[in-house]
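User: These chains co-purify. Model them together.
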Amino acid sequence: MVRTRPEESTSRRDFLKVAAVGAAGATVGAGWRPRKAGAKPAQITFLRESSYVKEFDEHFTKVLIPAYQKETGIKLNYEIVAAGGSVVPRLVSIVESKAPVDAAWVQQEWLYREALLDVSDIAEEIGKQQGGWYPEIKNLSVWEGKWKSVPFGNIGQTMVYRRDWFDQAGFTSFPDTWEQFLEAGTKLKKAGHPFGMSMGHGYADNNSWLLPLLWSHGGEVVAKDGKTIHLDSNETARAVDYARKLYKDACLDDCVGWLDIHNNKAFLTSQISCTNNAASILISAKRDLPDMGKVIDHALNPKGAKGRFHSLVPVTHGVFKHTPDPEAAKHFLRWLMDAKQVANWYRSAQMYHAPFLHAYDKDPEWDKEPRFRADLKVLETGRLVNWPAPADHKAGEVVSKWVVIDMFAKACTGAPTKQVIAEAVTALRQIYG
Amino acid sequence: MSVNPAFEAARPAPQAVLGGRSLRFREWLEREAVFSWIMLTPPLLFLVAFLGYPFLYGVYLGFVNRQVAQASIFVGLGNFDKLWNDPIFWQAVWNTFKFTGAATVLKLAGGLGMALVMHQNFRLKGVTRAVLLLPFIVPTVLSTVAWQWIFDPGMGLINRVLVFSGLVTQGPSWLGNPTLAMVSVILVNTWRGLPFFGITILAGLQTIPTELMETATIDGAGSWGRFRYVTLPLLMPVIFIVTTFSIIFTFFDFQLVYVLTGGGPANATHLMATYAYSISMGGGQLGLGSAAALAMVPVLGIVLLLMSSYVRRA
Amino acid sequence: MVGELTWNRRLLGLWLPLTALIVFALFPFAWMAATSLKANAELYDPKSNPLWVQHPSLVHYIGLIRESNFLLWIVNTMLVALVATLLSLVLGVMLAYPLARMRFPASGLLAISVAVAYLVPQTLLFVPMADLINRMKLGDSLSAVMLTYPTLLVPFSAWLLIGYFKTVPKELEEAALIDGASRWRAMTRVILPLCTPGFLSAGIFAFTLSQNEFLYALLFLNTSTIRTVPVGITGELIRGDAFYWGQLMAAAFLGSLPVVLIYSFFVKYYVAGLTAGSVKG
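Assistant: Joint model of the three components:
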């Protein structure tokens, strides 16, 4: 194992000294053996969040695992962890305790990039092989000139709506601007089919429309330099006022507290006519409610004065520095991302991970479910949640404290615009100050 | 489940040593202090290894600036200073008190009622007792998922009943309204913890000698009088114990809130435990997160001290 | 006393509150049961009755058992809970017995330390705990949680047992000692058997907490075949923002079944045991 973090080991030794003084240090000795370095690993463990398309995980366990084992003789373990807040704790504890996991979907990699191996060679090679990378993802995966993760795909977040109810209300195409969106929502709510735009402490469905709303009004949270707080602006105030009005006139009351699951539930039980979500609603509907499956459609976010935006939910894979055999772990990632393997893995789930690789822009798989094509378009206007600031751990803190989300949520539950912006700026100062 | 295997496993070396029987050694072993320390050593070693080390490490983290996968920088009380000036933290502290206080009072009142009801004789008493424990048994992650639906604005059981009974035309938003969201998490916590109170207080009731009750009745006490002057004072120790327990568990509870609201909407249900967790896990700031978790210990300690001194006076 | 209970009083004092209690405690289960027997189409139907099943089907139960390692998870959970409980009881007795019945230096300090150990939040412990478990090479094995759960349970068990041990009159032990029994014999043959209900109550409470625990199980149990019910279920059935509601509820039901059976068997000892000691003590 290559130790590239001497400072880290020093601090641990320091701690052990402290612990020894506290009379506790002596007790951890049992079974404390260094790992054998250099031996060919008998197995590689790859960790991911469980996918809402079961076939995607099944493709990995039924096709990719046997193939890799046959090719290399190395056993491949696939650990799946529940979504909604289980994965990041698991990843943090892996990094902190150097647990025997070699590679993973490195969710929120900005928190622990220092623990990830440089995978520039793989990313460059795969990019060259498969048409090149979409540029925005580099802002996440490339850190200080090196690729710390290999991008996989984006879980497209789009507007999901009931075409039948929109038609009835006289909207034959999905609203193109936020103003039209509000107008449609007001009318549909009066007809008993309100919108349900998530604004609670979830992970994706809140950011995926509130940040684009802010950006398309010209607002931004932190400037490109990663230091200057830009939130307090007239543009932000306009976006907040808009959200409040949308909530009052067009939305179901409940949505201000919704986590990622709630809008799926509300949509599938016909309580709402539109929300912002990944493809999971459509996929569930097609399986369980075929009639509804026919009248659901996907659309891009409406545009504002500054254009049309989406927020990315990027999936990237990385290798941990503490893996006993870095070359073996990197070999696995290279093998996995090779067109021979990865193309069919994308397709096994109907491309719901829109590949960040241009080679798949015209993949025939997109024709099977044309409604997923919106996900492909998201790649063009999609920004990372930290945009335009760099994707560092401070940006991660802004997200994990729901600073921006709560600004909107507070406005919707009655607080004045000035106050909610000021409170958000206070929280930002805590983080960036 | 037989208790015997536990005893077998617990039997440490002394017995075997006794077989060697040097009389003086045996006498030495029989001294209270020696016997005590032989008994105490294994559990203490276990606790020091598995609780002491992580605890000290955790305390250490509270005094350093420590980002995941990065080096620690000693900051003294810097983390606590940061929390002191953090409005969200104070909101979480306040929420934690509201949550713990309300849930404990409700569980106590409900549990006392449950015990008084279950103390009477009726058919299928045993089965009823076991069944009433169900909320306590089902894993919290799974029962909370069910509550997601029960609180659903249109499809949920609660709002369906409210609408059906004609009380309202449209049910309230349980998880969307900040006040009701707090009410909701308190309700679920009460639902889950009430059986524990009920069954514990019931056990206390059963130890009250019937003669006392009869004497009180002869002295002319009504059922309220018997409850107020005989039952309640005798139950006080039990009530104190179960309340202490519950305060600790409720204070640290974060799974329920995490699954149900994530601390939202707009931090209305964020507790110290959920906030500490999201600082550590979401923000990757292990130092600050540990400090936030550590802040719970003295707060809780003070609450418990106040409680115990109150009870001692009473 | 029984004679003065009129039917009205019986109604107000027993049947009404009992019904209210049962409704409050069990209505979520009624919903869970109905949902576990409903096809998704019916669950999502806005006109469906939340407590009634139009077309009952066992599809979720079958799916749960066929498509996941559910039965294995139950076995794991029971095994983990049993070992963790026994370990906690044994260590708890060893801690509680001297503290309750012996005089020796530093006993007061020790009693306080045990109480303080109880105030340590799990949120503070889990990162260091993960570090410890991996140093000991216990990661991804059931023994990892079998050893960590007692850290949550030993202080509790000890504290409960202290109250219990104190209730047994000192004379009993002295009599045994005068008869020539060793301290060990006096403890195992005289005192401990008297406290059986105490063990049962501490044991059942520890068992419930162990089979319910989520965070350590999430961090330490990684391979699907060695997971416990809460982690296994959420990993397989909470997929992104798509929940497998029916299967989740079926799992909640089947998962608590063994525990309910254990409880209904032990509940009378449980009730007799949980506080009897503390009341007198």
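Chain B has 17 helices and two strands.
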